[in-house]
User: Fold these one by one.
Assistant:
Number 1:
Amino acid sequence: MNKLLKTMVMGVAGLAMTATAALAGEYPDRPIGVAVSYGAGGATDFQARIVTMVAGNEDILGQPIYIVNKPGAGGRVGWNWFATEADADGYTLSAYNIPHFVAQSIKGGVQYSADSFEPIANWGADPAVVVVGKDSKFSTIQDLVDYARDNPGKATLSGAGLFVGHHIAALQIEKATEAKFAYIPTKGGGAAAMKAVIAGDVVAGINNLSDAFRAREAGNVKILAVADLERNAEFLPDVPTLLEAGYDVDDSSVNFRGLMVKKGTPQEVIDTLAAKVPEMFAHARVAKRMKAGGSPMKIMTRAEVQAMWAEREKFLAELLKGL
Amino acid sequence: MTASRLQHVVSSGVVLMVAALVAWISFTQEPADAFLFPRLIAIFFISLAGWNFVRAVTGLAKVGEGLDGPGFVNILPGLLVMIIHVFFAAKTLGFYLASTIAFLIIFTIYDPAPLSNRNAWIRRIIITALFMAVMHALFALVLKVQTPRGIWF
Amino acid sequence: MEFLGYFGGVFEPISFLLLLGGTIGGLILGATPGLSPTMAVALLIPFTFHLQPAQGLILLGAAYTSTVAGGAVSAILLKIPGAPANIATSLDGNAMAKRGEGARALHLSFLASGVGGVIGVLLLIFMTPILAQWALAFSYSHLFWMAILGVTVIGSLDSKSFVKGLLSGCIGLWLSMIGFDDNLGAQRFIFVDALAGGIHIIPALIGLFAIPQVMEMFSKGRENAAIEALDVPKQSLIASIRELSRSIRSLSIGTIFGSIIGIIPGVGGQIAGLVAYDQARKFSPHKDKFGKGHPEGIIAAESANNAMVGPSLVPLLTLSIPGSPTAAVLLGGLIIHGIFPGSDLFDNHPRVAWTFINSMLIGQILMVVFGIYTATWAARIARAPVPIMAAAVMVLATFGSYSVQQSMGDVYIMLGLGVGMFFLEKFGFSAAPLVLGLILGPIAESNFTTGSLIAQAQDGPLIYFMTGPLNMFLIFLVLASIGYSFWSNMLHNRAAGKAGAGS
């Protein structure tokens, strides 16, 4: 009996020692979590899974990154959780979507703003595109806009939710064309918005370039225009921008995705991440998988992202003022 | 066997109060658009709860065996351990430590073997250790779930 | 018959090992409380990075089929449904396990899963083009009516009192509204921070089913704890097969409802088991036995939830539209390998597509073999002494509900709902209708809101929601279901009144 007790005490002491030793070690000494504010299988989720897949390599972070999904209310649930409940210790990161969370914080009702978070790096930029079903009578963006002008409020446009990139694009299109569309936010993200287009529930839809590219490859939709400053040479060289079509819609709705930490995270942790994470995004295997999935990449460093956040915040405050 | 009329009245009264609270919140909060569905539900909820309450008062409610005194007394210690474990210990002590302690306490409270029996203690400790080892293997090693660490782990 | 040519791919050494590993691993993951099939498949995606596309899909497909069936193990033995699909299984399954018939319950559950699953995959193979049109036919108004149809079975589901069944459903509907509203982002009923994210279905399931049962064990106290040493009789496979073949009615109701409901995007998987269970009871001559450990209840529920697996992939594979959360994860798994479902998949990567589908077919059979093989052994869990069982279920419930979103808030919700449910159950309310309300509330609401917006742009809500053959048909079903509930409730009351007068 005594022997058993002794062994147990020693075992406990041993475990306690390893635990303290681990605490004193270099960051990171255990796997890092990334909270994704959208459901498993969505564009943000699977891109996050791809861009973090090499984190465990010794020359990157040396520790794997795992994904936790916290979907709900267009991302509000996840970011609210991150801003209020997550630990600011560098072991819980979050994926951001610009303009989504900035627009939501401007509209209010959430407990976060751009100041609650510290960006680490950006991995992707997914412009919004205008799609119609493959049998639609519209084959150019002008046809669609003309229809909306003739039938105010009848041209339904599906998108992934209110105050996300798709909604911003729809608002900009309405403003630039002076036509009245009916924006229909769908529950279930971009996939549900795409289903509404394919099934003919709506006249047209706004969706992510990556998802629309795949839907077109599958022969389900036509892509009419892209809301960016220039055409996407890699995936959709044949699709004109809205600017080319003569509508003053810039790249403000482009969905930027990247990683961020909570404000209050130790500076040396932020520095480590800011140095290593862009390297991780730039890894050849990541690039190969992202290209195969039709997902446009845009790697930006921490400083560049900070500038981009500030600029978007200013623009969105202006756009959403009257709403 | 069914519960006493008093128990039915109290229980359905509590449900009615919850329904009233839901209805009150649904009909006073803004924006109205966001509360359309809650309002619809609240109408059904409160009418059913009212009906249920009337049935209980008139003695028509017969389903459910209700709470019996000795059984409820038996529940209290275990319930207390669960509440302390989930709401306080899991986060401050760390998930695995708190679970180990909670498992051992519940096992000990409801184990018929007398507390003075040393063999029973050894058995309980070994079973607790084995169970927690399986939990650790499954959740930490296989599923890589990062649990709150608290003061220890 | 194109698929026959690709069977070889399944039996290549590496592929077959993956299939085997995916099936066994899936059974274990599925049996773990808190791990839904969606999460299990998402957990396996990183492993597929290192595999060929076809091999990766074999792993995911095998895991999908076997986690759905594995969920029945914890539903039967511990009364913790692994996913919404297994709720109905736990109603009768756990009652059987408590009688010492755990092995029989597991046998029947795996056999029924296998039969339903194979038929579901065969539907996927032969009927895909027709089913794809069917899936697209469901628009917002139809999904809304589907959800209402589900609401109408609430009153009769596992409840001794019609009023209290409906009231339980109302509580569930209300709980589903907690959190941020999906459309406008308005905050609803968020009394404490933990509720801000809303009530996630999996922690809720764990709390509502497992915690009342733990408290029930507590209530026996320490003196009575020892006496319940159950004898677990050996169950012969032949006897189980014979029993299954005697329950053709439940089996076919389960399979038919499972595969039909499985195709409907966004609704299917979660309610297929419950709806099939409810129908099997309505058509059964032994209605009263359901909920008290009736094998037909398990057979209907499990054949339904595995029959749904194949058809639920139809919209994904043909149109690239994920019809269920698990399908969405599979879509991610495909895209990572540069394969886009849709015509591209069958035209340019037929080997990948058919190997995947075939592996699900073989996976179903392997799953039955392993399930049966381990059933007798697993059933012994139900024999564990009460104090160990209570402590173990409590700890499993905490771990399971935490691991869903790695959030303490979910654990608080789990325990809060569980303790509340214990008291409600004491007064004749029940968990199954409450959960159904919790599942259907958001489906009804979001489809109503989106549908109304589209209706405004078209001819108004009345025309949008009330016209068209599919709408009319669904409304007819809703009315029929309500009528049936009242009628059977009246008959029941009259019979009870007579019995009461006689005694």
Note: The longest strand of chain A covers residues 117-126.
Number 2:
Amino acid sequence: MKKAESKNIKLLSQDTLLGNGNVGEGVSLQLTNDGRRILWLAHESAPTNFTGVDVSDPRNPKVVVQTQLPHNTVRSNSLDVVGNTMAVAYQTQTWGQEPAGIELFDITKPEEPRSIGFYDCSSPHSRGCHQVWFVEEGWLTAAAPTKDFQPKESWDDQPFLMLDISNPSKPEETCFWWYPGTRVGDDEPAPPRHPRFSQGWRCHNTNVYPERPDRAYIGYIDGGVMILDIADKSAPKLVSHWNPHPPANGFTHTVLPLFDRNLIVASDECVYDLGEDWPKRVWVLDAQVEDNLVPISTLPMPPVEEFAPRGGRFGAHNVHENRPGPSFRSDQIVIGTYFNGGVRVHDIADPYEPKEIAHYVPEAPEGSPAGSIQFNDAYVDENGLIYAVDRWAGGLYVLEMDI
Amino acid sequence: MQRPDAPAAATHHLIAYGRDRVREDALVAITEGRAADIDLPGAPLAAVPADRRAPVRLHALAHPFTLPPAATDMRHADQQLDFLAGHLRRLCGSFWKPGLAFFDAYFDAIRAQITRDQDLLAARCSDIAGLIEPAHWAFCAPMPFPRARIRPAAPGPLSADDFIPADLAFHTSSGLLALWVDSGNSVLPAQRRARERLSEAGVRCRGLPASALRSEGRQLLALLGPDFSDFTSTCPLPRSPFAPRPLPRPAAA
């Protein structure tokens, strides 16, 4: 078995989460009223819904709660926490299944999450919600349709949705936008499909930052990077669109604006094993002119020849998103997950010439069918500790940077 | 060939600025004693004697302008100041908005102070009235070195790795000042250790709240301290960095 590889990062602890070590793309940290630090994790697939882990002692994490999904054809995948409220995304395997939507929980007592609301977006044309972005009380955004949304192409089924959740028992739609041409009834033609790796024109991450409440920064899968003007919630407008696919291989995932630097960091997610959809990059975009984004570099990655054969996916996925709350924030350091490429840390002080300054690639988790680590997501807390999660079996890895 | 006035790493604080990297050729020039005191045109890298007590003012440097001043109408001090402010803004690069905001606020503050004290300043240079304008006093303000990399004076070999980044650096009558504009970034362990090394070397380290850059000009100077808010009173006479300079002394054969 290949040994762990590291540079300027050390492993503090690992927890396989009671044998359910398959974690998705939802990692968020709660500071509880009684002074504990609870890390909430959404799982990649059923039967586990979400897990709460006490990471007050990062060297000794303890699972405090783990919940189950109602059946095996729904996944939670994404969650976010603000204060003592948690939003969880539910996406079904196929169209027309339930539950499909967003559930809100009161997690004041982490051991006893209590459902306090549900936004139902199930329909014959819906798989529900893939991602939630919840960083301030009262509202959230999501990659999800409304109940009456019918896409022209079935995979274009998760537009941009904003909900008012000030009354969690009755979430209300406040802003809804889809790429013109993707909805039945649109005059515009449906956008072209990717010639090799078609995955739809739909949202992945839907980030709205308190610094710019009038902008949504969206990874639109095969549609690339999109910036919406949402100042008028009833009439959102596309103000910027940059799409490298093709020739790039699709699946724009995260769009991270670095406001003080006029830069955007955008990741494409690798979704095929053994390097089939290589390269999946993290792009650095010059955003001095918002409506004319210009790629100026990509973050360096290790050689595909060496990593692709290790098994599973190899390439970019999530980057830490500088969210408010107990979260690491930097406009120079980009921390991302690269599946079997592990966690990698890049310094973009010179955005024309990003440098990798740290990485951690653990050995393959026991029981993983991939045969390699498959780091799916990472959250970095305000102290610089990285909470990275494996997609299949390894669960949670708590890492400490020395950079 | 060694110059008698060349700075040395043991006796001079070195401030590289306006670039993401320290130029190796400048370090070689210093190591070989080929660099001129107090600055190295074209580097840009300032060498400040460690025992210097006077501030390094805007007028003290032979700024490595990327645009020739001769291409612009520079007859009046206001135009010269605009040109210098534009030059320093360009050294912030394209991707540092707080740096640009700092220079806007800093030069606004300087202009406001000169306007406020115009009569007093005119009186102070009445003996040479006609040669200088009150606006020339602006060049007495401390020189901000943007995107600074600081290497406090110390014996030993000179390496680019020894230079510690700061958003801005100044040399005032109280010595070196390293400044970071607060942009909400988490401080990394290596940054914390580097700032501690600067402090141990006697460099004052401080943060500047981003809100200070949004306030009216004079508040910024007051916040930075008396070396800034009283910059004209400590300068006997103003001069322009664009004034004719003596021909450089030839290096000894």
Note: The two ends of chain B are 7 Å apart (CA to CA).
Number 3:
Amino acid sequence: MFDSEFWSINWALMQGFGSTLLLFSVTLVASLPLGLLVCFGSMSNFSPLRYATRVFIWVIRGTPLMLQVMIVFYLPGLAFGMPVENRMAAVLVAFIINYAAYFSEIYRGGIEAIPKGQYEAGQVLGLTDNQIFFRIVLIQVLKRILAPLSNEVITLVKDTSLARVIAVGELIRAAQDIVAQQALIWPLFYTGIFYLVFNGLLTLAFGALEKKLDYFKG
Amino acid sequence: MALLEVQALTKQYGKLEVLQGINFTLEKGQVLSIIGSSGSGKTTLLRCLNFLETPNSGKILLEGMPLFDGDSAAKTTAAEIRQKRLHFGLVFQSFHLFPQYTVLQNVTLAMDLQEKERAKQEKRKPNKQKFAQNLEKAKQLLKEVGLEQKVNSYPFQLSGGQQQRVAIARALALEPDILCFDEPTSALDPELTGEVLRVIRELRNTHTTMIVVTHEMDFAYHVSDKVIFMSGGKIEEEGTPQKVFDNPQSPITKAFVQKSKL
């Protein structure tokens, strides 16, 4: 089985996996902080901003990611005569917006779960709002949201396969091309192993982080 | 001049008048106990003094200087409120220690962050020596509340009484003019209240000015210089503990004192 065909297929899948990895990591790095901004918007005391943000979250969470990818890709060309040249960029924009919306709700849940007393203790000690958030609240929020966050990150790994809807050559598309052209079934299972190993590593990383934050309770 | 003077302080939540014109004074070094049944406005009064609530009207004067003036239209900035807060310390009923920090860090945190904030304002580097001093001060305070063995523990590893003593050290670290306690022993098991009350008694001996909202009538009787009995958002009776507990004038006070069976 380990002939040249195996290695050429391996190479094709690796290239697909490269796109998957790029999509995954750029989306994660951009949407984690962006989600915090969206979260502040959805918790703002300024009601127009709060309502606008909540409508935004409703639309993003209420429509399929696949549709959002298609809209970001086709809209500039069909509506404004400026077709998107870089398909990967279009996918990234859609993914970052989508995941920022989901992360913002996870953050909001975590922030609202912190007892009011933590803020008040900081206030009576004369701390600024920034100091209270970054030095007292944030790590407690992180500890609380780690489990839902890991769920979402693992979902992101698998959602990357949606990029193929506008013909970005990610891992599953690479596998399907091989299956269709060479009438082989094993590359599909082999592709599954890519996802399994990657998600296994992520699970280990989250487990390690959880253990690291285990030194305190609350 | 009195250290603290509160004049005609009111606070409403919607139509509910929680404080209906509170007047009292407190001299430097005195201990004031505020007693009364739940919902009488004791805690709200304390929260107003610590700027956790904004009163609707009235005045709060510290050494004659207005900290809060309900008549003045001037808006106070967040930085001003932070400065005013520092005249008061507050120890909460349920401690509210910062769980991710050790006992020692809980005490040094605010001191260190204030040095950092001051350095930022004055556009200079934070003073390393100051941090070292803060550390020594925190250790000294923790020794005074009997927790020198626990400096490196985390809050969840401590009993309620120990946590409350850390909270007291944390509040003392900022050297407030007046230290406030909001039912400091109400969340504790009966066998743990003694150690916290002992610390408050020791503070009294060092002439720390204190306001203690409490249900511990025995403590209020023996430790206070002055007792205020609140009922329905008003001060129903005030005076020395002997006057309020042994010779109450108002029938409401009489009933309350009798029920608490001193």
Note: The longest strand of chain B covers residues 16-26.
Number 4:
Amino acid sequence: MSDDIRARFRVTRGEFTLDVDLALPGRGVSALFGHSGSGKTTCLRAMAGLERAPRGYFAIGSEVWQDEAKGLFVPPHQRALGMVFQEASLFAHLSVRRNMAYGQKRAAQRAGQRALPEVAELLGIAHLLERSPGQLSGGERQRVAIARALLAAPEILLMDEPLAALDWKRKLEILPYLERLHSELSIPVIYVSHSPDEVARLADHLVLLDQGQVVASGALNQVLSRIDLPSSFADDAGVVIEAHVAEHEADELTRLEFAGGKIYVSRRSEAVGTRLRCRIHARDVSLTLLPQVQSSILNCVAATVIDLAPTQTPGQMLVRLDVGGDPLLARITKRSADKLGVHPGLALRAQIKAVALLD
Amino acid sequence: MDHADLAAVWLTLKLAIVVTALLMIIGTPIAWWLARTRSRLKGVIGALVALPLVLPPTVIGFYLLVAMGPNGPVGHLTQSLGLGLLPFTFPGLVIASVFYSLPFVVQPIQNAFEAIGERPLEVAATLRASPWDAFWSVAVPLARPGFLSGAILGFAHTVGEFGIVLMIGGNIPDKTRVVSVQIYDHVEALEYGSAHWLAGGMVLFCFAVLLALYTWNPSRRQTL
């Protein structure tokens, strides 16, 4: 595709080497996920031009911002990008409004670019415009920083763990706004995070980084359902299922439906029809050959085994399943796998012990 | 206070204002460079700027006198440019004072620039501000307390100098005879009353300056 993002960076800093060669989709949210020291922030800074990677290459579609082979390096202030840092980093000497206007008045405006009041409304900060940054809460500051970045008419939005410096309550306050951006923005977002929940909730495309290397890169579930990842990722293995609210039932349960069947969860406040993402950990899925048996486990869906592989924990297996076209992972013991005779193509039922709704 | 005293006060103020203005212009880029450079020269330049803090004014005055004198390099230059010689003139006094008060201006501004850190400038860059733009729209406003301290200290220190004035400026009424020298003259002539007026005035002035510095400045700046 012509509007794809291409990034090739090799940066050596002491012991650490970042060596990535990425092709990312030109729209939606691409998450760079990894533990601290994996190089994800360095990678993002290289995209912004804040770090100059010798022999680097970075392009969005036909717009090339760095091509060292041709001696090309566009300095950060000439790149149409928006960046949100871990700390809001608002300019302390300017009001909220003037912080937001700072990039807006310097950027060449694009067609369809939103106006300041509209962006303020989108992020729920319209009532804060005349305040000074010192009078804002952490969550409000970060929303202003996001608004400020959006107003600079970016062609790409780079977010460096925008929620990491916030406590849980503030995160919950911002996430809905990020989801709104996700559905309303037409520009690609590169989102750096070390939180699996944030990634599961926001990302469309996932890049796993480990010690400066790309371990996996692909559509969210395609990466999440891989059974061959290093143990640092496999311990937390699980997939994300996109479901919608089908019905609120009488006994305080809400029925969600997805391609692979139905899932019951504790009563939700969302209206029928709302789309929800939920995360199902491999360790919360068990397998049975029998049809729905008497069990306290409500959620049981028909599944077909795609493949299986041993994990790095001895005696444990990861089984990849197909449930109505969606992938599902189950972590079971080797003994169980042998007893059930699990092999690719086997039809069985997956019991889901817990569903984490991402909100 | 007689005419000579008033002339000395006026000359002192004029000197301090001109020197402070020049120091802001010269000191700011030096402070910026010292705050941001990773060059190995940083230590050398920093030490050179700080020298007047520890050297006796007579030492600086002596070398400036030699340099600006008829056989010194600066003297050769000014003569070939048709400017004559600088010692015992007001411009000569200004140049000497700029050297002498440089650290008092550079260091507060440098500290303020260092306190801002890299981040606000990176943010400005991602918001399309060129480095020059970011300097004026972000670094300077955020370093305002440092500029204020630097200006006040530079001004007050210039008002208070004595040794270097004697070495470079001499004691020429209306040209180089500043308040501190005038007080010295009064005391030499045993005119203690006149000396009191000027000396007391200096004490009040300096106290007021420092009071202003300490009450305004405890930086209300929030680094976010």
Note: Chain B has eleven helices and no strands.
